[in-house]
Amino acid sequence: MKPITRKDFIIRSVAGGLSMAIIGPQVLTDPFADLAVVRGDDPSQATRAAVKAIGGVERFIRPGATVLVKPNASFERTPEQAANTNPAVVGTVIAMCREAGVARVMVADHTLHDYEKSFRLSGIAAATRSAGGELLLNSKDEFINVDLGGRALGKWPVFKGALDADVIINVPVVKHHSLTRITAGTKNLLGLCGGIRKRLHLRLNQTISDLAAFFKPELTIADGYRILARNGPAGGNIDDTILTRTIIAGSDMVAVDARAAILLNCRGVDIAHLRTAHQRGLGAYNLSELHIREFSI
Q: Are 244 and 195 in contact (CB under 8 A)?
């Protein structure tokens, strides 16, 4: 039986009013760790080790697939300022996808600062090109109105590439946020939306969970190598960053965020949008119930 692609799933769900149940390459009796937390001096090696510890990238993608890699590239900041995803992490994820034989790797984020400057200063543009990825989402024409069927969001413009992708790999940076305390995987999905950004923040916790329910990334790799511990999300002062040298990977985006919260001295239960997502059955934030592999390399 031919597997359902992301595009097929979204079309069927929107047309038939199906519940957005989690459909992915993982099976119910999963032999792999729920999360991997890896510390190391090299962010690229730590990223590879974390993904390998949860079954390898081949667990989530198949040869010939179209993959969307979603970093946080929102701000005109350098990697040392930790407002965007570390370019070495992004480049490594793209490289792993190419090594697995995918047909196409798209990289996209709807930036808050100038698109060209944000991708260039962050180092993500160069890392994407070097690893064989394709930079997208630089035009309003790349959005399409879709009925998200959410509690806060109905019809909303979303990135076409997210609808076409067979697999979404979410690659956020872990950082402080003035509204939500932390931003990591779940909030990173706002960067796949167009429209008026302020409207997305009106019922922010529900909006984040609506997007988590709609997009459902198969894999989330949280960049905690250098975190922005204060004055997020834009930051700008290197003194507000902490070098934690940590990469967190898992198929449960809520669980990844809950573990990432510890890097910012809080718990998943303390984060309102994670509580909302958990209550909607979108993931777990009680880390004591999870199989977690933590190690240093």
A: no
Q: Strands (DSSP E) along 148-297, which ranges? A: 155-159, 167-171, 173-177, 181-183, 219-228, 241-250, 292-296
The DSSP H or E segment spanning 199 is helix 197-200
pLDDT range class, residue 5, cuts 50, 70, 90: very low
Three-state DSSP class for residue 197: helix
Question: To 10 degrees, the CA torsion angle through 58, 59, 65, 66?
Answer: -100
Burial (CB < 10 A; 0-12, 13-18, 19+), residue 271, is buried
Nearest to 196 by CA among 151, 142, 154, 156: 156
Residue-wise pLDDT for 267-276, tens only, equals 999 999 999 9
Measured CA to CA, the distance from residue 150 to residue 26 in angstroms comes to 25
Counting Cβ atoms within 10 Å, is residue 56 exposed (0-12), middle (13-18) or buried (19+)? Answer: middle
**Residue 140: exposed, middle, or buried by beta-carbon count in 10 A (0-12, 13-18, 19+)?**
exposed
| Residue 37, H or E segment | strand 35-39
Q: Which helix (H) or strand (E) holds 97?
A: helix 87-99
Per-residue pLDDT tens digits for 102-146: 999 999 999 999 999 999 999 999 999 999 999 998 777 899 999
* Length, in residues, of the chain: 297
Which domains, ranges and CATH numbers included, belong to the chain? 41-296 (3.40.50.11440)
- Determine the pLDDT at residue 24: 37
